[in-house]
Design goal:
Blueprint (H helix, E strand, L loop, with lengths): L2 H13 L3 H15 L6 H8 L13 H13 L14 H18 L4 H4 L16 H13 L4 H25 L31 H5 L1 H5 L3 H21 L1
Amino acid sequence: MSSQAQSDETTSYSGRLSRQLIVRTALSQIDRTGTEGLSMRSLAKDLGVEAMSLYRYVHGREDLLEGVVDALMDGLTSRLDAELTEHWQGYLQTLAHEVRLIAVEHPKAFPLVASRHPAAPWLRPPLRSIEVVDAFLAALIGYGFSDDQAVAAYRSFTSFLLGQLLLESAVRGAAVSPVEEPLDEGEADIPEGDAARSLEGAPQVMRLRGLLSEDRGDEEFETSLERLLDRLSMELSQ
């Protein structure tokens, strides 16, 4: 690219800098180098602006990475084919494939989706968006699931997705632990965005918070292990 073209691009970015553009650029950078290579300075360099100008739109590391997750999950439930989701099995299959598509297309960013939401750390990844979890619970209840059945399905479904897709992401070059270091220092005088989202717009999540917050790790581990042993036993007997 010529110096004139670079200058023109820098001017263009400077004139239309926005949170959406910053987040999109951050995702592109993560796709190339992983979260460990992401910094406000590298973002600013890609955008042709000063690093401190980014803090007008993102509060800091947590807010930026939450913005990336939000971009990855955006429109997830709206992409589900209505004909394929007439039955609850079709709904779960279609949703699973959509989440897997995120892991396949953005393997280095997927560990962010596999982390817990700061506004609701008792929710389980990788259905990382509060809105997606709420839509998931509402859908299953609409299919006739009871509250307990819907939450149990949510637990089993997310456990399956998390284990399978983290493994796939790692095979595709992802670091399975999201970066923990701050993305430079910044004291933006704005509230955090995605990282501080409330649950007011997620009625099912709010209503079922008690069930969702229960720790059933021992029970789930034993059940999953028994199912694995049963499946292996069945395969050996054939």
